[in-house]
Amino acid sequence: MHARNALHAHHHDHDHHGHDHHAHGVSADADRRYLTLALLLLTGYMALEVVAGIIASSLALISDAGHMLTDVAAIGLALVAMHLARRPADGHYTFGFKRAEILSAQANGITLLLLSGWFIIEAVFRLVDPPQVEGRWVFFVALAGIVVNLLAVWIMSKANRRSLNVEGSFQHILTDLYAFIATAVAGAVIWATGWNRVDALAALVVAGLMLRAGYGLVRDSGRVFLEAAPRDLHPAAISEAILAMPHVNRLDDLHVWEVTSEMPALSAHVLVSHEVDCHDTRREIEHMLKQHFGITHTTLQTDHCAEGEPTEAAPCAFGRGHVHEHA
């Protein structure tokens, strides 16, 4: 029977592993400031656009305002999720609330999909029976919206977009920018020609953009919840790299997943040659994973191969090594 406690080493390398969420130099506090500033900017303009859309009888403007409402809700939810993610691990939540940000991103994506469906249905009705639309109102309000969203996109581009939570908010705002451009074109056409159906066509463009952004967020957040390997990490390549290391004879139960954005994790069972210190080999593997793949949260069980049986495990005979329990 293997001495599992002596063999199962949980290594986190805490000096490096502050989860490295802002390795590119953007702090969590800076992210919160950028999101708060964008939230205030968009909330103010959204209220103005709702009034303008009602006055102009423009579905394109109202759909833009509806999308802006999701922008505001997305940023507010992102800020709450960032606050929750800072809470330390406690009790049954051994990873803390790191995935609150992924929940936020998924909620943003689902909201975009639902709204896009509603705007598509409404736009079809308006194509059949178009109301009278004030093209001049639509054009100038959309132009102002382009300016506001350009400013919001610039603010959000400074935040850490490698965070799926922040990226979800950014995609909301970027989609809204494209929607305002489509709406401005529609307003100009209506103003110049009086062809009111173009307002519904612009709303369909907005809905299509929302579908695309929403699908991307649901897909990416779903990968995290299903514990798929991060897109930039390939388990086959990691397996080859580990097996190529000196004294490694066999690799079993390799799992690579993502706890939250920029927090990849790995666990595996490694069999090493019986004549080497399995804990030294484990540390070498951990160092390689950190340097070549950016994985700092590793759980490696290292066993010796039984002498004469290179694929059979035997207890490590070189001491306990470092054992670290999850908080």
Automatic annotation (TrEMBL):
Keywords: Ion transport, Membrane, Transmembrane, Transmembrane helix, Transport, Zinc, Zinc transport. This is Cation transporter. Residues 35-225 form the Cation efflux protein transmembrane domain. The chain crosses the membrane at residues 37-62, 68-85, 105-125, 137-156, 177-194, 200-218. It comes from the Bacteria. SUPFAM superfamilies: Cation efflux protein cytoplasmic domain-like, Cation efflux protein transmembrane domain-like. Residues 232-305 form the Cation efflux protein cytoplasmic domain. GO terms for cellular component: plasma membrane. It comes from Oleiagrimonas citrea. Its main location: membrane. Residues 1-24 are annotated as: Disordered. NCBIfam families: CDF. It is found in: Membrane. It is a multi-pass membrane protein. Belongs to the cation diffusion facilitator (CDF) transporter (TC 2.A.4) family. SLC30A subfamily. GO terms for molecular function: zinc ion transmembrane transporter activity.
